Amino acid sequence: LGAETLPSLNVSNHRLDVQFDNVEEAIAMSAMYAANHLKGVTAIITMTESGRTALMTSRISSGLPIFAMSRHERTLNLTALYRGVTPVHFDSAADGVVAAHEAVNLLRDKGYLVSGDLVIVTQGDVMSTVGSTNTTRILTVE
């Protein structure tokens, strides 16, 4: 068998031996760990006010697209500079899993995702609070 026929696995030792400074960093790193180890994941979605979670996820190689979803133009402009991150305007009055599904549906409607895709979503319990990322969800696109 040639090496090109074997499945590849992205393994990162980034901050493996260091404790995380905050919950937001732990969520970002756990999302990227799942993205690199769960078969079938096609994208990472960071629902972000400041862009910080998108920045942290972009530091880990995965080969997967990262979507930074925000209602703030400044945040979208900033995340456009991050490696592998595509900024997408998203403004929802919903919180929690409802907002996550709205974000996934928006990306599907824009053609970034297709039905059946497996995606990882990071978000906070309250959408409008900077630094509140505390949740990772794994969702299947409908």
UniProtKB/TrEMBL annotation:
Record has Transferase as a keyword: yes
Pathway: Carbohydrate degradation; glycolysis; pyruvate from D-glyceraldehyde 3-phosphate: step 5/5
Gene Ontology MF annotations: ATP binding; kinase activity; magnesium ion binding; potassium ion binding; pyruvate kinase activity
InterPro entries the UniProt entry points to: Pyr_Knase, Pyrv_Knase_C, Pyrv_Knase_C_sf
Residue intervals of the Pyruvate kinase C-terminal domain: 25-139
PANTHER family: PYRUVATE KINASE
Complexes and interactors: Homotetramer.
Family assignment from sequence similarity: Belongs to the pyruvate kinase family.
Protein name listed in UniProt: pyruvate kinase
Naturally occurring in which organism (per UniProt): Salmonella enterica subsp. enterica serovar Wilhelmsburg
Lineage summary: Bacteria, Pseudomonadati, Pseudomonadota, Gammaproteobacteria, Enterobacterales
